[in-house]
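Morning, I've got a small favour to ask if you have a moment. You're getting the sequence in one-letter code plus the fold written as tokens. Thanks so much in advance, here it is:

===
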Amino acid sequence: MKKFTKLFSLALCSTLLLTAVGCGGNGSSDASKGGDASDFPKKAITLIVPSSAGGGTDATARALASATEKYMGSSIGVVNKPGGSGAIGMSEGANAKPDGYTVSMVFVELTTLNHLGLAPIKYTDFRPIALVNYDPAAVTVPADAPYNTLQEFLDYAKAHPGELKVGNAGLGSIWHLAAASVEKAAGVKFNNVPYEGAAPAVTALVGGHIDAVTVSPAEVGAQVKAGKLKTLAVMSDTRSETLPDVPTFKEAGVEAEPIATWRGLCVPKDTPDAVVAKLKDAFMKGAQDEEFTKFMKGYGLGVKLMDDKQFGDFMKQNDESFAGLIEELGLKK
């Protein structure tokens, strides 16, 4: 972990230095809170995606950019900036020139990385634009597992502490935190097994190498429909559109704090109000456009919309919740 932190710090410092030199920092006169956005945008907008091409975040960003361009009145180019669990790209976006021409797609790790001690990036480094996606964690097991309900699964875990192998997307990942939250709520102990992402964990589950995963319905939907896996419950206040027949934790009689992955849009914190308003209007319209909603449904991803104020409050709540959970679990490095 020390090696990762050192490498990450070097990469992050390089990113921030290049951004400061190229953009003049956040002290630009363009960063007044009011500002005149009557001619905005007059050139292409860059959408930074802090993950590799081909994944769910990248797919969401590209579909949203395509659907939003007609409302924005300019082209939106997607640029992938992976690394550091999203911290490299999000840090570059936060330190870009605050003129509205650089927008960042952010995800839930924006509210966990700082508390885990992995990166200094925080949600307060941005101004929110909109939330567009929300996918809850779900407990999924092999189709032939001896438990058919969440309670039966937890009863087994209670009777066999540390025996059930639960796969996640890596130590400190949102899906690891989801499993830890289940342990906390139900008073059980799992054998948490980290993988390099959710997909390898699901593959391990199908192959019989682990006993369960706590990833999103979208990441197990195909295998559930193929009859290889079964999802016992979702960690959400409402049922998943991907797996509508699966109960929520509350419906299953287990009180656990909802944990999910989510994706939204942000700009540097000194971006003028008028520019933020234009961006919010265009991206909210794009997120409601049939082109985008149809794509998300086909991909198994949930569409959930929040405007800038709602999204800001949502990130604050996530930040406070994860701070307590991470401290309680002793996960900070």
Notes: The mean pLDDT is 88. The radius of gyration is 20 Å. The first strand starts at residue 45 and ends at 49.
